[in-house]
Amino acid sequence: MRAYLLASAYVVAVGGVSPSAAQTEPASSAEQLSPSAPQDADAPSGQNEIVVTATRREERIQDVPVSVTAFQQEELTQKGIVGFEGIARETPGVVLNRPTQNFNNFTARGIATNGYNANLQSSVAVYMDELPISTIGNTTVVDPNLFDVERVEFLRGPQGTLFGSGSLSGAMRILTKSPDLNDFNTSVLVDLGLTGSNSFRQRYNAMLNIPVVTDKLAVRAVGFYRNEEGYLDNVGTGVHNSNTLKDYGGRALALWKPTDRLSIRLLGSYENSDPADSSLTSPSLGREKRVSDQPDRFTGKQTILNATLEYQADFATLTSSSTYSDFDQRFWLDLAGTFPAGAYAGAPIAFGLDANAYDKVFVQETRLASSLDGPLQFVVGGFYLHRRRDVDYFYRSSLPFLAARGLTGLPDQYYQKQYTHQISKELAGFGELTYRFSDKFWVTGGMRYGRTSAQGFTEEGGYLASYNIPPAPGFGGLDLNYFSLALGNVRNVAFNRFTPYAAVEGVKASGTKPSWKASVSYKPTQSLTTYATFSTGFRAPIVNAFAGRPSLVDPNDITIPYGAESDDLKSYEVGAKARFLNGLLTINAAAYLIDWSNIQAQANRVSDSVQFATNIGAAQSKGFEVEMGIIPAKDVFIGFNAAYNDAKITKLSVEEAAISGAVLGHRLSAPRLQGSMFLSYGFDLGRGTKGTLAVNAQYVGSYNSSFPNTPGLPNVPLSTFGETDEYVNTNVSFGMKRGPISAQLYIENVFDDHSVIYIHPEAFLVSRFGTLRPRTIGIRLGYGL
User: Fold this and answer.
1) Which of 252, 466, 649, 667 is deepest in the core (most CB within 10 A)?
2) Which SUPFAM superfamilies is this protein grouped with (predicted)?
3) From CA 454, how far away is CA 751, in angstroms rounded?
């Protein structure tokens, strides 16, 4: 039936268009074929050019002395990119560690100790307009809908001067599209697909733009809904296609321009992303299988409100952006892998964590960017962030599991409930100054200086259910002494004591540190821009939850340290951006050397495996990236990008190796080689109809899941250590377009590759492997795109 619906949709599209429509209309300019394609170097301003705001000013991408890849809506639509995963595969030097929907960690240029970043700030900052939505590694981040966006920019290398401490190795910006003050328009995109033999995918998107007062006031509304049936079977819960995703929401924007100098933009957006289960698998169970006692849930509901005022003075543009965000998330997972398999009759112990988090964030940024044509250009501004995160930790077992072993007395399945919150603040001033000695030579210097602070609190209330039996041996620092009963040591015992938690105020972590940037640019011809850049980066300090706690197993073992200091990163980059043959050939290339010291890392105490954050040694990352666009003939475009990276631990003490599991000379968690290629061929089908045939392939090399040894157990290999698979993911499409109507048949993962692209580094998850989505065949129907 679902295959019939897909076929029917295509027949209707073909009949309505006669003979139908393409996703994007082929044209002789590379810009029309692909936003990352080359442009005519001599074209008038505003024609066939990609303009980015990576430097907080509008500049042509070919003139920006930064490694940046930009995606405009046409390219996102043509390639079927709807979220972070597609962006990562099309950006050189970047991988996305994505265990499941809404659980995303980018790695850029090899700066990562593992793909999980537990309790560590992400090394790539992610912005939704002016709001930073990235956070620490073991929390959810909504994978935002990318329909009707103005542009997505991915900046590689430290971007601390303009985007803060979270941009240690890069920053990704999602820029929503503003209302059009003059034209009424609408667009619709429907995507229907079939994954495997019985997993139906539905995606519906619509936009409406209304100019209320021409040239003065307009509103724009976007709505979207996704219902994508899963493709994994959970043998623990017995659910077929368990990892089904439902995602819906929208945004409304208003733009008021009372004068030529002043504009006010208001935005409200909401997205509810609700995967029914995780997408992590257990290959030992067979293809597309996973196991957990209850569904693993990583859900998010995010509301964003923003007001941006822009005033054009005679010499500069003043921008004030105020953003409030409310983000509710669930982080529910089965932790059965924490305990040895076969503890009793080969069955796992029912043990899990249901954590609910509630973020309330306010961000204010005010900046002044020069607009004069003279030799001196500047951006100067201030940034303030206040985030309160409430996290409720509910550790659970299973009432049937407990009842079978004579454990009674719990009011529900939770034996421990703890309520906490954390207050984070950042206040910073930043600026960049560019001086042009001539049209061919200019220098840029930048600095950001700010103060960050974080403090955690345990709230009064909650409890730990316990009894007077000593803990079972071998479970270390876990407050799980009742599991000695679960193992059969004692039976028919009730939880006779509920110890309440008292309010505790944690130690406040704070720090001040500057970020620096210096760049020299030389443009010998209109077709070639070269640059050399030095920049620095760091992450905010971290306070350990168990700071000052000694080991109860071995009093001579280390006391849990206060926390981790800011790490320190220095980046050296040289690059060139060239356009030849009147824009028919574009080549952007960069080479870099990064020194990363005092690395923030996750560690374990040797005697009891209590986890904490600390600093270790140093690493070095070096490599190069290249992007190329070629138009060999009319209506033909070839896009290519590649990246090589070599990132290794270069300095490590014996003590640091023991607590972190790191090894001197070990490669960090990033592929050595990756790249992608895109081929588009356009042709005329007659009667005003254009056709497009496109092939898109991405290659990603294998890389380490984590450090190779067990943290806290010197020289003991980590049982969960592994390497992801080397893989090639190929997509093909055939589209037709006539007027505003379009249709595109596509096949994603043509060869049904089942490669492992993510390995969770910690043992508490039984299903720890992320794989490519199986082959998906579908059709996209569009109007007004």
Assistant:
1) 649
2) Porins
3) 48
Tokens of 389: 């995160």
Rg over alpha carbons for the chain, rounded to the nearest Å, is 27
Q: Which two tokens stand for residue 713?
A: 């157990």
Give ∠ CA 492-494-499 in degrees, rounded to 5. 155
492 or 109, higher pLDDT: 109
pTM above 0.85, yes or no: yes
CA dihedral 45, 46, 49, 55 (to 10 degrees): 90
Q: Which two tokens stand for residue 672?
A: 């050595």
Q: Residue 197: is it exposed, middle or buried by C-beta count within 10 angstroms (0-12/13-18/19+)? A: exposed
Average pLDDT of the chain is 85
- 124-128, 187-191, 208-212, 753-757: range with lowest mean pLDDT: 124-128
DSSP reduced 3-state for 404: helix
Burial pattern 461-486, b for ≥16 Cβ within 10 A else e, equals ebbbbbbeeebbeebbbbebbbbbbb
Tell me how far apart the alpha carbons of residues 290 and 29 are, in angstroms, rounded to a whole number. 47
Amino acid identity, residue 563? G
CB 623 within 8 A of CB 648: no
For residue 616, which of 687, 557, 577, 664 has the smallest C-alpha distance? 664
Q: How far apart are CA 576 and CA 736, in angstroms?
A: 36
* CATH number, domain containing residue 645: 2.40.170.20
Tally of structural domains, the chain = 1
Helices within 374-477 (DSSP H only) = 399-404
DSSP 774: P
What token pair was written down for 569?
Answer: 């990163």
Q: Provide the residue range defining the domain that includes 120.
A: 2-783
Give the pLDDT band of residue 561 (cuts 50, 70, 90).
confident
Q: Would the pLDDT of 478 be above 50?
A: no
Q: What is the largest CA-CA distance in the chain?
A: 85
In the block, tokens 């890392």 appear at: 601
The angle formed by the CA atoms of residues 75, 78 and 80, to the nearest 5 degrees, is: 100
pLDDT tens profile 163-174: 887 789 999 999
DSSP 309: E
